[in-house]
């Protein structure tokens, strides 16, 4: 695999060493075990298939074998903007039409192309960044419950490895850039801006991203609510 570059000068490159598995329960499970065992920054676990891939809120990430990019990256530093930086990297990969749905989904034409899950242990000095991207997926092959909301890059299966290299290169750029640059790019790709949104405690209109990466929501009474965590749904 080609060298995708590090997050900064003197930092080991992303994607090395690499553990590739024909099938596993979850690449993030393996990456967490490697983190505890002392694996270095940039270690990546990839798989052809997952039997228990996870998304946020305990959801299952389903993908046909050999058709999606399934990977988890070990980072020896925690950045609160990590999910957003990763989302931007995937959006960069997907092209101008891709938007980032705060905090961790990438959408194309309103459909989910990729999911991102960060599991961090800041006190132990590591974070595992899990990324799933529908690279060569035929959406008709997906389970009925996710088929209508899924997007794909529509690349051939042979493009999985080049796509991984490209993603790591773009991720290295996004991880290394100053927070204001990252946030400006995120605002330009904000899928929730001026759109009706709802969450467990209320609803409103997406009002942008603040300087800490939190979501701003304009409430019906004119107040502005700041959400720094949680699940937000985009209403049509």
Describe the structure.
The N terminus is likely disordered. This protein is α+β, with helices and mostly antiparallel strands and 236 residues long. It is built from five helices and twelve strands. It is globular. Helix 2 crosses helix 4.
Identify the notable features of this structure and list them briefly.
236 residues; BirA Bifunctional Protein, domain 2; single chain; alpha+beta; 12 strands
SS-based class: alpha+beta
Shape: globular
Instruction: Provide the succession of SSEs.
Output: EHEEHEEEEHHHEEEEE
* Count of distinct strands: 12
CATH architecture of the largest domain: 2-Layer Sandwich
**Please, how many domains?**
2
């Amino acid at each position: 695999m080609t060298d995708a570059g590090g997050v900064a000068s003197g930092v080991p490159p992303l994607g090395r060493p690499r553990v590739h598995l024909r099938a596993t329960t979850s690449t993030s499970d393996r990456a967490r075990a490697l983190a505890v065992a002392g694996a270095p920054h940039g270690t990546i676990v990839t798989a052809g298939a997952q039997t228990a891939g996870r998304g946020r809120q305990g959801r299952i990430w389903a993908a046909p074998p050999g058709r999606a990019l399934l990977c988890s990256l070990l980072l020896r530093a925690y950045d609160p903007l990590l999910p957003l930086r990763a989302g931007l990297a995937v959006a960069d990969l997907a092209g101008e039409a891709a938007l980032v749905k705060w905090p961790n989904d990438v959408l194309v034409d309103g459909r989910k192309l990729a999911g991102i899950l960060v599991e961090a242990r800041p006190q132990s000095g590591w974070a595992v960044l899990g990324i799933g991207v529908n690279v060569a997926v035929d959406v008709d092959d997906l389970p009925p419950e996710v088929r209508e909301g899924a997007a794909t890059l529509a690349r051939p299966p042979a493009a999985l490895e080049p796509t991984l290299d490209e993603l790591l290169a773009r991720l290295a750029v996004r991880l290394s850039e100053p927070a204001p640059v990252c946030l400006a790019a995120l605002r330009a790709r904000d899928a929730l801006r001026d759109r009706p949104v709802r969450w467990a405690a209320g609803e409103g209109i997406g009002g942008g991203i603040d300087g800490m990466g939190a979501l701003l929501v304009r409430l019906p009474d004119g107040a502005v609510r700041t959400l720094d965590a949680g699940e937000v749904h985009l209403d049509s």
